[in-house]
Task: inverse folding
């Protein structure tokens, strides 16, 4: 009996000094045997015993005194402070203070519940290792994974293997190879093929919109305001924009996105490349896009002539949108532009200018009222010189256009998630 109760010590007990007395509360029968100098004790029927802050109940317990091990069978329940472990079968080693449960395990610990096919629990470190078909639920999230690790001291958890995390309010879904969760810091990290679906719930007359973030690693910070920091092959897609970058920061509260490292952004018929790009949305509608450093904007004014690409380059390009359509533009510093003209779906030449600054107003997404300010130099190319040669009219540093990211949709019900493959 001592092997069972000595090994099941809470950290509040002295693990090196004298142990509290063992009390067998009840057992229908007790059987003792000796074989090959090994002493075996078997407790059968309504077994219950305690030691310090630990209580164990089960249908049957077999204690191997020589190997300092106990095997528990039938409706096993181990309680230690707020912790409750339930399983049909548990083997506990008094030598290393580790319990191994199998056959379908359930754990409750304060506001955390978990289940798995198997469990390894270390009493001293208070680490619970969950294996196979893992589900962990707390006040804010529900996690599915192949395996998980939960520490009772700091409530930190790690889940790995086809991990899916759903926020309790249903406005976020995360999928990754591995997810680390640090509740006290309100911080989590998704690694390996990480995808976040952030659902922005609109008013009754405005349907919900979903922002999808993909990257090798995505970190979420809940304080002082929710933000997602993504790194490695970042892709972001929502109803108004799509973007690629090496890294990004998405602020959920004001719907702003910062893109770093070869960023490229698509919005309707416009494409923007710069050293850094910032976009801001209001009520899920695009409001501002700024390209800072070596900025280059491309757009197609006439969809019937897609080879005629309007271009603007500058040190910085500041764009304003209205109803998700470009409304105005300001290009600052070493500004250059090429604008193709068309009439009745036919080409009508182009103009090419350079200046310190370019400003433009847009109507229905097309440029109107363009102004070149400071050190202006320009030229007009009539249609007979431009026809069939549109692709030869390119500003310096005309960018290669990467593949536009596509939105990944997520559907999930009360208990089951159906996630498409990326």
Result:
């Amino acid at each position: 009996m001592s092997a069972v109760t000595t090994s099941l010590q809470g950290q509040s007990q002295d693990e090196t000094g004298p142990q509290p007395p063992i009390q067998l509360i009840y057992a229908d029968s007790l059987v003792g045997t000796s074989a090959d100098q090994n002493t075996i004790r078997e407790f059968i029927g309504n077994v219950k015993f305690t030691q310090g802050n630990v209580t164990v109940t089960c249908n049957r317990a077999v204690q191997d005194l020589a190997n300092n091990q106990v095997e528990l069978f039938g409706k096993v329940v181990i309680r230690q402070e707020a912790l409750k472990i339930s399983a049909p079968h548990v083997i506990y080693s008094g030598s290393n203070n580790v319990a191994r449960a199998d056959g379908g395990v359930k754990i409750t610990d304060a506001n955390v519940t978990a289940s798995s096919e198997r469990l390894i629990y270390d009493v001293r470190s208070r680490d619970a290792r969950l294996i196979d078909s893992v589900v962990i639920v707390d006040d804010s999230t529900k996690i599915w994974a192949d395996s998980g690790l939960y520490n009772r001291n700091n409530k930190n958890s790690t889940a790995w293997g086809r991990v899916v995390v759903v926020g309790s309010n249903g406005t976020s879904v995360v999928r990754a190879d591995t997810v680390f969760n640090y509740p006290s810091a309100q911080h989590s990290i998704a690694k390996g093929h990480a995808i976040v679906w952030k659902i922005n719930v609109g008013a009754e007359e405005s349907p919900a919109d979903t922002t999808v973030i993909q990257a090798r690693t995505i970190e979420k910070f809940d304080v002082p305001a929710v933000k997602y920091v993504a790194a490695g092959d970042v892709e972001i897609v929502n109803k108004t924009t799509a973007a690629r970058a090496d890294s990004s920061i998405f602020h959920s509260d004001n719907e702003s996105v910062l893109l770093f490292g070869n960023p490229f952004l698509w919005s309707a018929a416009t494409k923007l490349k710069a050293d850094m790009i910032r976009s801001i949305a209001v009520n899920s509608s695009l409001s501002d896009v700024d390209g800072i450093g070596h900025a280059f904007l491309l757009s197609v004014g006439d969809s019937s002539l897609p080879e005629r690409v309007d271009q603007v380059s500058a040190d910085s390009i500041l764009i304003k949108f209205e109803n998700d359509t470009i409304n105005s533009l300001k290009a600052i510093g070493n500004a250059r532009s090429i604008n193709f003209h068309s009439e009745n779906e036919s080409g009508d030449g182009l103009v090419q200018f350079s200046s310190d600054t370019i400003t433009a107003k847009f109507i229905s997404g097309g440029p109107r009222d363009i102004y070149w300010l400071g050190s202006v130099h320009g030229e007009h190319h009539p249609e007979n010189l431009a026809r069939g040669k549109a692709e030869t009219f390119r500003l310096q540093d005309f960018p290669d256009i990467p593949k536009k990211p596509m939105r990944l949709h997520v559907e999930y019900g009360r208990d089951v998630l159906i996630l498409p493959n990326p």
